Amino acid sequence: MAKIDKHICIIGAGTAGIMLANKLANKFEVTVIDPAKDHYYQPGFLFMPFGRYKAEQLRKSTTKLVNKRANLIAEKVANIDFQNKKLATDSGTDISFDVLVVATGTRTDPSMTEGLLGDGWQKNVFDFYNPDGAEKLHDALKDFKQGTLAIQIMDMPIKCPVAPLEFTFLADDYFKKRGIRENITIKYITPLSGAFTKPVASAKFGHMLEERKIELVSDFYTEKVVETENKVVCFDGREVIYDLLVTVPVNVGSDLMRKTDIVNDLGFVEVNHGSLQSAKYPFVFAVGDAADLPTSKAGSVAHFEVDTLAENIPRFLEGKELEESFDGHSNCFVEMGGGKALLLDFNYQTQPYEGTFPFPGVGPMKLLQPSRVNHWGKLAFRFIYWWMLLPGRKIPFINAQMSLKGKKIIES
Ligand SMILES: Cc1cc2nc3c(=O)[nH]c(=O)nc-3n(C[C@H](O)[C@H](O)[C@H](O)COP(=O)(O)OP(=O)(O)OC[C@H]3O[C@@H](n4cnc5c(N)ncnc54)[C@H](O)[C@@H]3O)c2cc1C
């Protein structure tokens, strides 16, 4: 099939960039640019500290994941010239485009918190949002037999906002299985006023923490970490002492985007929440974690956003009005330990409610309630990711727009 003579450049071959390139490559000239030779299934990082996966089981070569009809350039984008619709890679190559998609994700930046990268870093202070940190944390957890484990979110937003909670539930389960839970105090430290961003789920998770004798330390805006004294200090003067600290450092947008005039303070691209188009430069779109949107930064969200862009980019190139079809839909499994998980389904407007998924009244998965089926769903998702999601195939019965059918609406 002949391609339409328009050039779409995607910066970033992560979850969102690969999915979008694979959806558009048969129709348009598509170039994806990313220096990373390997792509990781990031949800697997959660399980690495507990020994379920090794990094190599979560990794595939980026070249094998991108449709051969797209050009993949293994370089970093160093500069974007919006006026002349071109970008430059770090080797100095200029590339012109008709449409630019920013899919540069988010990264953790431990250097943004005073004291975090001190002597304790990767000795008794760890970050599991990357394979190296997750692997090192595995060794530390094996050796941890007593004391206080503190799990801490430095600031919001973070990618996969449930991941630190899941880590907490899995740690409780891990210590119970080793028969040492009684010797360990677990504290969950968050800048939020509850266990999660949305009130209904927050109340549920708060209760689950309490049942497991995990202390919730809320409204905790970390000023600094004093590693010589093993403590985290809040701006309001409160302190939490730890023996082992598992932190999610501040999440920021890519350095490239932080140099531009289309981002917020943390470097996330400001776009229309429904169409994902930049208000400043209509030929620019953002997708995935790189976008500044009032929903979770998650792979499932990136998946639903890609459906909107796969419609809107062709519409833009044909001069048609864009559809504001992205509704903030987020769908995520939350591991609870003990071989169970619960499932959250929500969007910009709604809370995660109880009910069944994907079939109203039938399930087989339960929303907002722990079940074994949900846990198996979470584990199976790795295969769906590689074989359906990234190649851009439709996942049966999963719709980009959220439905309230089969959900029990609870007023918060
Ligand atoms: C521990 C953990 C657990 C998670 N669990 C879940 C889960 O259960 N469910 C879920 O839905 N999501 C989960 N996520 C989140 C999910 O993995 C991310 O939201 C998703 O991968 C985001 O995709 P992205 O394409 O926006 O960013 P990424 O996949 O991070 O890709 C961004 C890419 O941009 C590239 N890039 C950056 N700057 C440049 C530049 N200047 N030039 C070229 N390329 C550049 C990077 O190299 C990178 O490859 C989890 C994440 C973590 C860390």
Q: Which oligomeric form is depicted?
A: single chain
Shape: globular
Bin the strand percentage: 25-35%
Low-pLDDT regions: none
Radius of gyration: 21 Å
- The end-to-end distance, rounded to whole angstroms, is 52 Å
CATH superfamily of the largest domain: FAD/NAD(P)-binding domain
Strand order of the largest sheet: 5-2-1-9-21
Major pleated sheet = 5 strands, parallel
CATH architecture annotation of the largest domain: 3-Layer(bba) Sandwich
Give the helix proportion (percent range).
10-25%
Q: What class do helices, strands and sheet pairing give?
A: alpha/beta
Itemize the secondary structure elements and their pairings:
Blueprint lengths: L3 E8 L3 H10 L3 E6 L4 E3 L18 E3 H4 L5 E3 L3 E5 L4 E4 L4 E3 L2 E4 L4 E2 L16 E2 L4 H13 L3 E7 L9 H15 L6 E6 L9 H13 L2 E4 L4 E5 L4 E4 L4 E3 L2 E5 L2 E2 L2 H4 L10 E2 L13 E3 L4 E2 L6 H19 L12 E8 L2 E7 L7 E6 L3 E5 L4 H18 L17 E2 L4
Parallel strand pairs: 1-2, 1-9, 2-5, 9-21, 11-18, 12-13, 12-18, 13-14, 20-22
Antiparallel strand pairs: 3-4, 6-7, 7-8, 10-19, 15-16, 16-17, 23-24, 25-26, 25-27
Helix pairs in contact: 1-7
Flavin-adenine dinucleotide binds next to helix 1, helix 7 and strand 23.
For this entry, give a set of tags:
412 residues, alpha/beta, FAD/NAD(P)-binding domain, 5-stranded parallel beta sheet, 8 helices, 28% strand, globular, binds flavin-adenine dinucleotide
What is this entry, summarized?
The protein has eight helices and 27 strands.
Give a written overview of the molecule.
- With about 400 residues, the protein is an alpha/beta fold.
- The protein has three domains: about 5-105 and about 255-315, FAD/NAD(P)-binding domain; about 110-250, FAD/NAD(P)-binding domain, CATH 3.50.50; about 330-410, no CATH class.
- It is built from eight helices and 27 strands.
- Strands 5-2-1-9-21 form a five-stranded parallel beta sheet, covered by helices on one side. The protein has a five-stranded parallel beta sheet with strand order 11-18-12-13-14.
- Helix 1 packs parallel to helix 7.
- It is globular and about 65 Å long.
- Bound molecules: flavin-adenine dinucleotide.
- The site of flavin-adenine dinucleotide has 36 residues, from helix 1, helix 7 and strand 23.
